[in-house]
Amino acid sequence: MDTRTRIIVAAELATQGLSVSAIARQLDRHRETVGLWLKAIRIEGLSAFLDRYAEAKKGPRRGRRVPGTVKRLVWAIRLREHNCCGQKIQYFLVREQNIYLSVPKI
Description:
Blueprint: H1 3-15, H2 20-27, H3 31-44, H4 46-56, H5 68-80, H6 86-97
């Protein structure tokens, strides 16, 4: 069952008076997700929500902020330096590879 069908079934079950937790269990989705769907359906209506949901899935995805090659370098430095901290990894990246990366991204 695809997500749009699950949303429609969730809306029908909500009109029958089932709780959000029961709907979530039946559709195998998290309770908060089902709650957000039902809230949006109450505000926008079912067809408008489904149209907006379908449009949201069509857009291009954002690329990775840190390329895989840089991640491999970070892990190599971490292994080489015996699980050193992010500041040291940042230091080695700048010194050895001339790559500037913030500590939270490391």
